[in-house]
Amino acid sequence: MTAQRVCIIWNPSKTTRRDLESGLDQATSAAGSDFEAIWFETSEDDAGQGVTAQALAAGADLLVVAGGDGTVRAVAERLAEADTGTELAIVPLGTGNLLARNLGVPLNDIPGALNRALGGEARAIDVGWLEIDLAGGPERHAFAVMAGFGLDAHMITETDDDLKDKVGWLAYVESMGRALAASDPLEVRITADGQAHDGDSVHTLLVGNCGMLQGGFNLLPDADPSDGELDLLLLSADGAVGWLDTMRNLVWDNGIKRLATGGKVAESSDSATHLRVRSLRLELMEPRVFEIDGEDLGETTRVGITIQPGAVRVR
Ligand SMILES: Nc1ncnc2c1ncn2[C@@H]1O[C@H](COP(=O)(O)OP(=O)(O)OP(=O)(O)O)[C@@H](O)[C@H]1O
């Protein structure tokens, strides 16, 4: 086996290089890999795109990203753009760690994640691309997990961690209720795969590549990061009855009942619509803060979303 050039892109606000080196030593003794490690730090000014370009220029065979979802997103964005076939591995160090979670990467286990990084098989995953009009002009960003507005990743990560460990998805009921109560529905003109989607008044719109959250709660039950499609969830609950219908849809119809009956297609309800799309155009009648992989981009009224199938190979 020839020596691999492993470029480690790490967020120093999340861990120390010493911890990563020690994890790497343990992983190497388990995997017995022959490799050369080159280290790249992210910074407040470069969340990952710049160092990824440097690592690719240095001839990386494998990029290992050590950080939270924001760092993973930045690295995946640059890698998807470069289209080099260089593989990616994740050492999850954030709160949500949603991509790692959805791909079954060991959490809270630096040596375990590095062991998988060095020896694991890669799978190609899709990446979503967003063209968004912001106050400073149009911007283009990739996402690996999900994007949207309304009830968002903040609600998800702000949900009490102890509660999530104890009661799993039930912990989301309270925080989701709070998030729904705080957001008014608005009119959104939605064009999905070139077709106008009628009459949409929604308070939450999420489009994603994968939907598993902490506590085993799956917001986008049909989402498969390698299927070449994005999964869209529209929530339109207004008042307590709508909120109950939303919870029943997300927790019961597409959670427990689906598990029990082996359902394969996400069920929609009066207040929750599930769709699968390859492209999306959104025109919001009022500005809303749009978010990608847990990061706020700012307020917008116009967004275009496409998918780059199999854009990044992740171990
Ligand atoms: N060298 C650095 N010093 C301080 N902050 C940094 C540095 N490098 C990156 N950051 C900041 O880290 C943030 C990204 O963190 P990251 O995505 O790794 O974790 P996270 O956002 O806490 O993850 P999660 O949302 O899953 O908890 C960005 O705000 C970025 O500016």
Automatic annotation (TrEMBL):
Q: EC no.?
A: 2.7.1.-
UniProt organism field: Promicromonospora alba
Would I find Kinase among this entry's keywords?
yes
UniProt-recorded Gene Ontology molecular function terms: kinase activity
Pfam entry (one): DAGK_cat
Q: Where is the DAGKc domain?
A: 1-134
Q: What is this protein called?
A: Diacylglycerol/lipid kinase family protein
Keywords of the record, alphabetical order, are:
ATP-binding, Kinase, Lipid biosynthesis, Lipid metabolism, Nucleotide-binding, Phospholipid biosynthesis, Phospholipid metabolism, Transferase
Q: Which family does it belong to?
A: Belongs to the diacylglycerol/lipid kinase family.
Its needed co-factors are: Mg(2+)
Under PROSITE patterns, the record lists: DAGK
